[in-house]
TrEMBL record:
Pfam families with a match to the protein in the record: LrgA
Subcellular location as annotated: Cell membrane
Topological relation to the membrane, as annotated: Multi-pass membrane protein
CC annotations in GO: plasma membrane
Residue intervals passing through the bilayer: 29-46, 58-78, 84-109
Name of the protein in its database record: Antiholin-like protein LrgA
Keywords noted in UniProt: Cell membrane, Membrane, Transmembrane, Transmembrane helix
Family matches, as InterPro entries: LrgA/CidA (IPR005538)
Superkingdom of the source species: Bacteria
């Protein structure tokens, strides 16, 4: 499954690089999907780990991406007015959640190690 995730990330990265390098209006992930399609057509088939990752993502795609994209599209004027507040809250929220998650993982790993002894 890790091989599949890495494959998707590589093609998304390549698409992003191409979109940035040539200043294209098409988003990088879309270009990456086209590159992945071309790769799979040349290869002739997919591989199991990629199939597993793709089926997992496709199962939850409507829940994760479509509502968020629609919210952004319909609220562009509000987002542009509150851009800095949104950006600052996203940055600090991410930092806080990463710090708390790392502390929780550290605690759980320590607890598991103590239990095994």
């Amino acid at each position: 499954m890790l091989k599949g995730i890495i494959t998707l990330l590589i093609f998304q990265f390549l698409g992003g690089c191409i979109a940035t390098l040539f200043s294209l209006l098409v988003p990088g992930p879309v270009i990456g999907m086209v590159l992945l399609l071309i790769f799979l057509m040349i290869r002739g088939s997919s591989f199991k780990s990629l199939d597993d990752v793709v089926s997992l993502h496709l199962r939850y795609l409507p829940l994760l991406f479509i509502p968020a994209a629609m919210g952004v599209i319909t609220q562009v004027d509000i987002i542009s007015k509150e851009f800095w507040a949104i950006l600052i809250s996203l940055v600090f929220g991410t930092i806080i959640s990463l710090a708390l998650s790392s502390k929780l993982m550290d605690y759980l790993i320590t607890k598991k190690e103590n239990k095994q002894k």
